[in-house]
Amino acid sequence: MAATSENTVQVDKDKPKSPDKKKTKYDVIIIGAGPAGYTAGIYCARARHDTLILSGILPGGQLVNTTDVENYPGFAEGIMGPDLMIIMRKQTEKMGATIIDDEAVNVDFRHKPFKVLTASEEYEARAVIICTGADYRRLGLEGEKTFAGKGVSYCATCDGAFFRNQELVVSGGGDSAMEEATFLTKFASTVHVIHRRDKLRASKIMQERAFSNPKIKFHWNKEIEAISGNQKVQSVTLKDTKTGEKTTLNVGGVFVAIGHEPNSKIFQNQVELDAKGYVVLKNKTETSVKGVFAAGDVHDHTYRQAITAAGFGCMAAIDVDKYLAEN
Ligand code: NAP
User: What is the largest CA-CA distance in the chain?
Assistant: First the structure.
């Protein structure tokens, strides 16, 4: 692959243009279509392996819910998360991978070829790469369920515009929370950041951006104890983590940004998972089952960046290439 002087992506012209979406047997099945899945797809298809990506219900993964990505190399002016994922998908398709927008609901890695099942189809492959990423962590409150879509949200980019001139709450102290809070000031009258400690986990630059925004108010050592309302969110009850004192904030929306959990449920009892549900890697990117590999946030709880997920996707595809050559 080479970049032209206009910086457009040029791919080999002799790759299959219209993959057969009825096929059920592949060399490699990649489960998930975030930066890890697409990168693995690009490398596997380019190595001439018959490659299927089951992209799940939300192709593009977490970046679809992100605004500006400023730290993905190659985009000096930054790029919107969804745009980056559209480019990756196009590049993967051009390389010849088949992408099906369906969700894997079950797998069977006990026998070869491996089986990956969707609600309507059973696929087989000689190798599998798990790239299912991670999903939003929930606060675990009753009101979170009751008011889901009625004022409780996990995605400022998706829902922020519904809350014009309202007071909002953002829960969390990491980069996601700072990003969400800053973004929401475009719409909200005030954004209250609720953090359970008195120090943020977010990076310096994200902290500075939030601290300098006059619409953001910080509430230190506080937890959301309850979300209340009538039809939709009207208030939150805060509990001081040091004194136990309770206070109420009248707000129209609650944005939860407290991290993520790996999407590994269907792999329970199939590959080894750690106590938090992350896929355990045994040999480079290979899992506890030979021929089954993993890449991205589903195994990586340390770096969790788009670029590292893409890097892991590349590594897993190279490991798959070697595995297929040897088996
Ligand atoms: P994170 O770094 O794990 O932060 C989660 C935050 O939520 C922490 O402040 C944590 O509090 C709090 N928290 C966790 N569980 C909680 C609970 N049950 N109740 C209340 N608070 C809770 O997650 P993240 O912010 O989603 O970031 C994940 C990764 O993505 C990071 O590596 C981050 O740098 C990256 N990221 C980067 C960007 C960017 O550069 N544009 C944007 C978003 C994310 P404690 O601090 O007390 O643990």
Answer: 67
